[in-house]
Every structure is written in C-alpha cells, then in structure tokens.
Design a protein that fits this description.
This protein is about 65% helix and about 0% strand. The relative contact order is 0.14. It has a single domain, classed as UraD-like. With about 160 residues, it is an all-alpha fold.
Length: about 160
C-alpha cells in the first residue's frame, strides 16, 4: 500500500491526527497484523512531543457533548458514543455530563477521554467522577492509554469490515 493509500485508510484511527498514520507509513508496517500496527501507532504517539500528545488529546470530543448534539462528531466517535448509549441520555444525565465536562476541562485543560465502547452511561459517569480526582500528570497518561484503546478498537473494526 502506498503512502497516500495508507494515510487515507489509517489517518482517522487517531482522532483528527493523521500525523500518526503519516509517521507509521514511513516505517512500512505490515497492515495485515492489526496488533503490530496498533503497537507501532501507539509507540509513535508515546514518543511524540508532549505538545503534540496534548493536541491529540484535545482533538477528542466531549462525551455526550455539544458536538454530539449538533451532529459534528466523526463517524467513529458517533458510533462509539452511541454504543454506550450516550445518544440516549435523559435530560438529567445530559446535564450531569455537561457539568462533568466543564469541571474536567477547567481542571485539566483537555477533554475527558475514555474508550466507551461496551460501557454503560453509569460506568462512564463513575469513571468521570473518579478521574476528576487525579492530578494532571496521571490524567494526561490515562487519556493517552484510553486513546490507544480507542485506536486499537478502531483498527479491529476496520479489520472486520475488510
């Protein structure tokens, strides 16, 4: 697969961050091995400058946020949030998500990121509440771990579609 095709296929695995696929493309990774591809992509992110990692974290949408309501999420984010029922929040749940999103942004300066596929709204809200107690460094690392989980799930879904 040439560089253009590789980036076209894998550029969205990391939310709004095609630079990950661009760097992996240069390495000539075997794309038939999803686990290897996921590991290499994660390694690229883990070895990026902290400013670029922060941009990656900030590229993620709020959970049950205004972008979801406005229909502005990527197809992957829309499906992931819907799989957790975030598109079916009661008014009370929606307001709680908004309050937690605001508190989280105020404390950390980036959105709460969680691989929500197959999680319930209650589980997500509980994780949100617990992680608000973290310090910045721990939460920054936790967000990257969650982003890697999201990327791996996206790669696995792409493999199943092929």
């Amino acid at each position: 697969m040439d560089t253009h095709d590789f980036i076209a296929r894998y550029g969205g695995v990391y939310e709004h961050s095609p630079w990950v696929a661009e760097r992996v493309s240069a390495l000539g990774v075997d794309t038939s091995d999803v686990a290897l591809l996921a590991d290499v992509m994660a390694d690229i992110v883990d070895n990026a400058a902290s400013e670029q990692q922060l941009e990656l974290i900030r590229a993620h949408p709020d959970l049950a946020g205004k972008a979801q309501v406005a229909g502005e999420l990527t197809a992957d984010s829309t499906a992931e949030q819907a799989s957790a029922g975030l598109d079916q929040c009661s008014q009370e749940e929606f307001e709680r998500f908004q309050a937690l999103n605001t508190a989280y942004h105020d404390k950390f300066g980036f959105p709460f990121v969680m691989a929500v596929r197959d999680s319930s709204r209650d589980e997500i809200l509980e994780a949100f509440t617990q992680r608000l107690e973290n310090d910045y460094e721990l939460e920054f690392e936790t967000a990257l771990v969650e982003i890697h989980k999201i990327a791996r799930l996206r790669l696995e879904a792409m493999e199943q579609e092929a």
